[in-house]
Design a protein that fits this description.
By secondary structure, the chain is an alpha/beta fold. The protein has helices at residues 13-24, 38-48, 64-74, 87-99, 112-118, 120-131, 173-181, 202-212, 266-276, 294-302, 320-326, 339-350; strands at residues 4-9, 29-35, 52-56, 79-84, 103-107, 164-169, 190-195, 216-219, 230-233, 239-245, 248-254, 281-285, 306-310, 332-334. It is elongated, with a radius of gyration of 20 Å.
Length: 357
């Protein structure tokens, strides 16, 4: 069996030691090197040719983000960031994901040693997923808005929240969601989003999206009326659900047990959309590992929703979309850059008529 070669980069000797213990303890992984800073890491990358790099976001001698940006431009490879659970740490992590990091793990707030070791299975799984991710070479500058700008508003602007867009994503999803939302017009239908992400990071993610998009984006608080031109992101501590209150759609948060090992879970959101919105919803499933969202998207289709999936070529990890396609939950499969246009074209073509199953 070919083992996953992992290079560990962290300025903390304790973190390096703990990460080495975690990685070396996996039967399918080997530690090919440890580095206290990016300068040492640069030489070790040339010597060991690792499959995955774990990288601290705050590093001496060279900032972790500067190093990551150069790495993804000159020698793209899967990177899992190691981030602190602070507001600054979450903002830096969001930027790291924009630059091309596949995923991140968080340092515990209190006991680092026991906390990291308790997260052994999560860390190992993220490294495994990263080793299979599709990594694209980045240019020196990535435009905030794709060529052509945002999609034109609908000819008949939506004046109610009757139509909805329901989105689910996991690994690679932060960039995919950004690329999707950034193309939408300010009068698009209301949007609910579940992205697998821990508590403390979803608010930074929502704030970043809000600054980039024509629509308003916020972390869902529960009890909000879902409005056109607004997106509501599931907070890292709760499932996000869509509910009906009279003629209005509302958000609801639920701190019930994880579903498919996740809270928030895409299946929970999709199931609620099937029940509350039926044919008035369009479902979109984006890049991610596992099968969360497949069963819920099938329920959406059976309830009359129209569903789209990101294609394999543009996914970082073609897991969740693949499972949704395999179970017959989707109507269309398309590259990421085409999905917003297809969604808006569908709304423009169908208006208030029932969507076909």
């Amino acid at each position: 069996m070919t083992k996953i070669k992992v290079l560990i980069v962290d300025d903390s000797a304790l973190i390096r030691s703990l990460m080495k213990e975690i990685v070396a303890g996996q039967p399918d992984m080997e530690v090919v090197g440890v580095a206290p800073d990016p300068l040492v890491a640069r030489d070790l990358i040339k010597q060991t040719n690792p499959d995955v790099l774990t990288l601290d976001v705050e590093m001496p001698k060279m900032d972790g983000l500067d190093f990551l940006e150069r790495l993804m431009r000159l020698r793209p490879m899967p990177v899992v960031m190691v981030s602190s659970l602070t507001e600054r740490g979450s903002e830096i992590t969001m930027r790291a994901l924009e630059l091309g990091a596949v995923d991140f793990v968080t340092k515990p707030k209190l006991s680092i040693q026991s906390g990291l070791l308790e997260s052994t299975d999560v860390i190992a799984e993220k490294i495994r997923i990263a080793s299979r991710a599709r990594i694209k070479q980045r240019s020196a500058a990535t435009p905030a808005v794709p060529p052509g700008g945002a999609l034109a508003p609908l000819r008949n602007p939506l004046t109610s929240s009757e139509k909805l867009i329901i989105i689910g994503a996991s690994t690679g999803g932060t960039e995919a969601i950004k690329d999707f939302l950034i193309q939408l017009p300010s009068d698009c239908p209301g949007i609910l989003i579940t992205q697998h992400m821990p508590e403390g990071f979803t608010r930074s993610f929502a704030n970043r999206l809000d600054k980039l998009c024509k629509i308003s984006v916020k972390e869902a608080e529960g009890g909000e009326r879902v409005l056109p031109g607004h997106a509501y992101l599931a907070p890292g501590h709760s499932h996000l659900q869509l509910v009906r209150s009279g003629a209005n759609y509302m958000t609801r948060l639920d701190q019930g047990p994880p579903v498919n090992r996740h809270r928030p879970s895409v299946d929970v959101l999709f199931h609620s959309a099937a029940v509350a919105a039926g044919k008035n919803a369009v479902g979109v499933i984006l890049t991610g590992m596992g099968r969360d969202g497949a069963a819920g998207m099938l329920e959406m289709r059976q309830a009359g929703a129209y569903n789209l999936a990101q294609d394999e070529a543009t996914c970082v990890v073609f897991g969740m979309p693949k499972e949704a396609i395999a179970c017959g939950a989707t109507h269309e499969v398309a590259p990421l850059h085409e999905l917003p246009g297809r969604v808006m074209a569908f709304f423009a073509a169908h208006g208030n008529r029932a969507m076909r199953v």
